[in-house]
Amino acid sequence: MNEDLKNETKAYIDRIKKTDAYVDYLNYKSILERQPELKAQVDAFRRKSFEIQAGHKYGYFNAYENLLNLRSQNNDLLNEAIVKSFLEAELKVSKMLTDILATFAEEVDFDLDFLQE
Question: CA dist 96 to 21, 51, 72, 93, 103, Å?
């Protein structure tokens, strides 16, 4: 990568890091990290949720039902204020990054159509 492009990329990343969504995410992450047992529970939930969603892309069935069951099994955890706030903030950042990457892929005519079913 040429140096100008690398510097512009770093500047853009700095802008992303200053967004309300990212700042909120870091704040909630920091609060959650001060409670290691709770963070471990949240991470286990996130890992399982990710595995279910990723598995769906590879032909595993019942992803929707499995996600509903996972949420039901973790209802108390998901209703804790800090957990709820963290997961909402994480989702906002995830959507923002997904949109950014999609825009990059579209604008440079990078073929990702093979990912569509």
Answer: 8, 21, 27, 5, 11
Euclidean distance between CA atoms 71 and 69, whole angstroms: 5
Q: What is the pLDDT of residues 2-34, one digit of tens each?
A: 999 999 999 999 999 999 999 999 999 999 999
Whether this model's pTM surpasses 0.70: yes
* Residue whose tokens read 């990710």: 50
CA pair distance 76, 22, nearest whole angstrom = 26
Query: Which residue's entry shows tokens 């108390």?
Result: 76
User: How much of the chain is helix, strand and coil, in % rounded to 5?
Assistant: 80, 0, 20
Q: What ranges do the domains of the chain cover? A: 16-99
As given in the structure block, the two tokens for residue 97 are: 């990054």
> Are the CB atoms for 32 and 42 separated by under 8 Å?
yes
